[in-house]
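Quick one, T. Sequence first:
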Amino acid sequence: MSPKDSNFAWGGATAIRRKIFDEAKVRDFWRGTVSDDYRLSAAMSATNLGLHFVPGAMVATTGDCSAREFLRWATRQMIITKVYRRNLWLAGFVAHIFYCGAMLTSFLMLFFGEAPWGLGGLVLTIVPGMGKGEMRGYVARLMFPEREEWLDRFGWAYFWMVPIATWTWLYVFAASALTRRIEWRGYVYELLSAEQTRVVRS
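Structure tokens:
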């Protein structure tokens, strides 16, 4: 949520002037791709215009999905990230390996009687993430006052489910490492590169 130019576009809430769209040749960047937002980000980077986060552009995602549907969606998004922003994907994967490894080591130390070290490790690995989660919940309340009732019922998840979410993302990273194929609305695509996509099945 930085106001600086280190952001990348998200297709669910992005705006661009038509004049800039044409001057940046976004259509050319979109040719042969499945990711509108990553390639739009690349086009903006190529023109040195950058992207800016605008809080008022945030939208609430209110749809329901099962755990299986979520994992399929998250894995698909991570495969796309691996192809279009490999360095970002790799940094995230390595960070989650170390993060989850530290969490597991701390649990084992606590289990085998090294309470001070184990407890200290858990505090250092889990609490900062839970603090960030609490901040996300706070921001959600500020941005979406009409969702207050929902946040009163489920807002605790931003804080308490952080440890589970961390392991979920490690699974998603690992699953995305094994393939370049994604399935979306009955189509199967193979992401050959950021500029080239092959339809495997329709």
